[in-house]
Structure formats: C-alpha cells, structure tokens
C-alpha cells in the first residue's frame, strides 16, 4: 500500500524541525502536484508525497560534506518508519544524482526539476519590494534564469530536465508559479 499524504506529513514533522526546510518541502510538494496534474493525473497525491519527503534527511545527514548520503539517509528513515516503497525511494534519491540514482522516469525527472525550481522562484520573489510570489511574472523567471550569477546554487540543468517528461520548460514555470502562489501563506511568500 502506498504511503498517504497524512502519513508523509506526520513523518516529515517527526524528522524535520527547521521552518525553512518545512516551507521548502511544502513548496516542492505543491509543484509536484501541479506537474502530476498534467503528466500523471491519477497519481497527484503520490507525486505530492515525493515532493513532501524529498529532503526528509536534511537535518539528519552530513550532506554538505558527503552529498552522496542525501537521499539514501531519507530511505533509511522511511524504512525505519515501516515504509517499503522502492518507487518512492528511487524518486527521493534521484533528486540528488550524487546519491548514485540517476533520473529515468517522469516522476524522477519531475522531482529533480521541482526541487531547485522552488528555491529559484523564492529567490526571485525575495528581490521584489513586497517579497511575494504573486508579484513574480513568467518573463522575470526567464530573465533571471539566464543570469547565471542570480541564485547560482539553483541548478539550471536540473530545472530544464523537466523536458525529459515531455513538458516544456515554459509550461513548467507557469505550473510552478501557480502552485507556489496557491500556498503562498504557508511558505511565507
């Protein structure tokens, strides 16, 4: 049986305390749900769970010194919690290719792309006077995307990997913006 959103939420809050990390997890969940509505409408909930749990180990592994541990540590946490879902495990690991899992499925490419997109859109919102995601326009995202020094940590190759799902990058921007606007209060934007 697949993990439910309620179970995922409970596990997330058991292992993650940092508000910034939680907000990021909610943002990636929202983007993944938006992408799933287009690519896998029957799996919206599941794709959202992948987004919600993708950084579960953020506060439990030395990912800065050992990036290969980010993802596999989440898998170990989930196994300890009684979850046995290889599709979920591979998707979580695929969002960090240094874990040894390279994206191959639409779900895996979607999480690979959605993770940096959430942070990138937040960075753009932060430069607006009101610091609101509602102020961010599609053309601003494209302009900042071409400015490689802006939000340099947001991996543009990973964001563009959405195209391996069959979705074009422009559509992905619109879906991500709409998704984050839908939960703006919850993510402080």
What would you note in describing this structure?
The chain is mainly alpha-helical and 189 residues long. It contains nine helices and no strands. It has helices at 5-15, 19-39, 44-53, 72-80, 86-94, 106-126, 138-146, 156-160, 169-182. Helix 1 packs parallel to helix 3 (44-53), helix 2 (19-39) packs antiparallel against helix 3 (44-53) and helix 2 packs across helix 6 (106-126). The protein starts with a helix and ends in a 7-residue tail after the last helix. The mean pLDDT is 97. It holds the Pfam family HD. This is HD domain-containing protein. It comes from Drancourtella massiliensis. Residues 21-100 form the HD domain.
Features:
mainly alpha; globular
């Amino acid at each position: 049986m697949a993990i439910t959103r309620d179970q995922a939420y409970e596990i997330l809050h058991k292992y993650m305390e940092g508000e910034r990390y939680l907000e990021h997890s909610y943002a990636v969940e929202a983007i993944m749900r938006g992408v799933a509505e287009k690519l896998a409408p029957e799996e919206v909930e599941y794709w959202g769970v992948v987004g919600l749990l993708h950084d579960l180990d953020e506060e439990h592994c030395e990912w800065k010194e050992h990036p290969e541990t980010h993802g596999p540590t989440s898998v170990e946490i989930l196994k300890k919690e009684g979850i046995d879902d290889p599709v979920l495990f591979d998707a979580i690991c695929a969002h960090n290719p240094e874990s040894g899992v390279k994206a191959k499925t639409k779900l895996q490419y979607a999480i690979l792309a959605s993770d940096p997109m959430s942070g990138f859109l937040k960075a753009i919102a932060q430069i607006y006077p009101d610091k609101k995601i509602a102020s961010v326009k599609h053309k601003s995202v494209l302009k900042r995307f071409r400015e490689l020094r802006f939000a340099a940590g947001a991996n543009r190759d990973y964001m563009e990997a959405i195209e391996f799902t069959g979705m074009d990058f422009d559509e992905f921007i619109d879906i991500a913006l709409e998704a984050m606007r839908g939960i703006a209060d919850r993510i402080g934007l």
